[in-house]
Amino acid sequence: DAKTTQPPSMDCAEGRAANLPCNHSTISGNEYVYWYRQIHSQGPQYIIHGLKNNETNEMASLIITEDRKSSTLILPHATLRDTAVYYCIVIGWDNDMRFGAGTRLTVKP
Amino acid sequence: DTEVTQTPKHLVMGMTNKKSLKCEQHMGHRAMYWYKQKAKKPPELMFVYSYEKLSINESVPSRFSPECPNSSLLNLHLHALQPEDSALYLCASSQSGERAKNIQYFGAGTRLSVL
After folding, report:
1. With bands split at pLDDT 50, 70 and 90, how would you rate the model's confidence at B100?
2. Residues of A in contact with B102 (CB under 8 A)
3. A98, B102: Cβ pair inside 8 Å?
4. B9-53 pLDDT, tens per residue?
5. Do residue B42 and residue A101 have CB atoms under 8 angstroms apart?
6. DSSP 3-state helix, strand, coil percentages of chain B (rounded to 5)?
7. Cβ(A90)–Cβ(A100) under 8 Å?
8. Which residues lie across from B6 on neighbouring strands?
């Protein structure tokens, strides 16, 4: 079973920041938080991952709460091409990637 | 190059056919994966190969038979499939089996229809 909870859908206006929440209240100390997205009819695409510190790359920022029970993926300036299903996944040393239902983000003009 | 190539892109087969899906990567990755994705559902893990050895089989029916002939290639042999096996089959690879540091790169998938 997936270890994360995400809202099923969100909307965002083009050019605005998209903030996608994820709850992972049962996360263990050695488990990482990964984010992937899947644009319609394509394979999932890696976005970012982190353990306990906030992370930023060219695609997004990942904010992890101090207690590590939740995180937020931030797309700073959403475009129409960011419309996709976003998956938050918790992965540890001894378990494989299990996708939850994800959040369907729709970026609107 | 972060490309995982899957062929064919589309496949239609009858329930008595034998077919194979192919996946190839040239990133030097030593772990490769098969996922199955039904419409409007998340991907489900089927098989994991680590250093060309099968390490995970998620109770997949024997009509699906994976093969990893070398570190760059992964096949999925299909035989006597059922219509409910129609789905998008995704292949992925990652640098190693260290799961927590495990960025997976996915192919575009093979869309399979079983008639």
Report:
1. low
2. 91, 97
3. no
4. 999 999 889 999 999 999 999 999 999 999 999 999 999 998 899
5. yes
6. 5, 55, 40
7. no
8. B23
